[in-house]
Design a protein that fits this description.
CATH architecture: 3-Layer(aba) Sandwich
Order of helices and strands: EHEHEEHEEEH
Bound molecules: adenosine-5'-diphosphate, magnesium ion
CATH topology: Rossmann fold
Strand content: 25-35%
Number of strands: 7
Radius of gyration: 14 Å
CATH class: Alpha Beta
Length: about 150
C-alpha cells in the first residue's frame, strides 16, 4: 500500500521527516526520488535535525555521501552524478553500519537498492505544494508507515 501525503510548504515536509524519525532503527534506508527542487534535501535535513545532528546538513551532490553524527549515524547520499553506476561505492557497507541511510535520486540506482526500504517519491504540484508518495518495502517499513502516518 502507498501512502500519499500532501505538504503545503517546506515545514510540512520537514514534519513528515520528523514523524518518521521518531521510529528510526539501525540500518534504516530511506530512498528519495523526485525532480530537482522537489524537497529531497529538505526532507533529509528535517530527518537529520530530528536525529540530533548538530552539523549543518547540506546537499552531498559533490561528495556522493556525507556522514553525520546523531543519535544514530546518518549517511546522506546523492547518487545523481553516478548515472546509474555505483562505481567505487559499496552501498551495502553503509547499509550495514547501524546508521540511517538517506539516498537522494535513489530511482537512478534502482537495481542496487536493498529489498527492504522506504521509498518516498516527491511530486511537485506547484511552487509550495508537494505530494509525497511513501512506498514501504518489507514488514519493518510497513509497520513504520502504519505507526507514524
Ligand atoms: N512543500 C514543500 N516541501 C519541500 N520543499 C518545498 C516545499 N515548498 C517549497 N519548497 C522549496 O523547494 C525547495 C526544495 O529544495 P531541495 O530540498 O534542495 O530539493 P531537492 O533536494 O529535491 O533538489 C526548497 O527551496 C524549499 O524551500
Ligand atoms: Mg538535493
Amino acid at each position: 500500500m502507498d501512502y500519499k501525503i500532501t505538504t503545503k510548504n517546506e515545514y510540512e515536509t520537514i514534519e513528515v521527516a520528523q514523524n518518521l524519525e521518531t521510529e528510526k532503527f539501525p540500518n534504516m534506508v530511506i530512498c528519495l526520488s523526485g525532480e530537482l527542487g522537489s524537497g529531497k534535501t529538505m526532507f533529509a535535513k528535517g530527518f537529520g535535525d530530528a536525529m540530533g545532528v548538530k552539523e549543518e546538513i547540506t546537499s552531498p551532490t559533490f561528495s556522493i555521501v556525507k556522514e553525520y553524527e546523531g543519535e544514530l549515524a546518518l549517511y546522506h547520499m546523492d547518487v545523481y552524478r553516478l548515472d546509474g553506476e555505483l562505481a567505487g561505492i559499496d552501498l551495502n557497507e553503509y547499509l550495514a553500519k547501524g546508521g540511517v541511510t538517506i539516498i537522494e535520486w535513489a530511482d537512478t540506482i534502482k537495481e542496487s537498492l536493498p529489498k527492504e526500504r522506504l521509498d518516498i517519491d516527491i511530486k511537485i504540484i506547484d511552487e509550495n505544494k508537494r505530494v509525497l508518495v511513501l512506498k514501504p518495502h518489507g514488514e519493518k517499513y510497513v509497520d513504520l508507515c502504519e505507526g507514524v502516518l
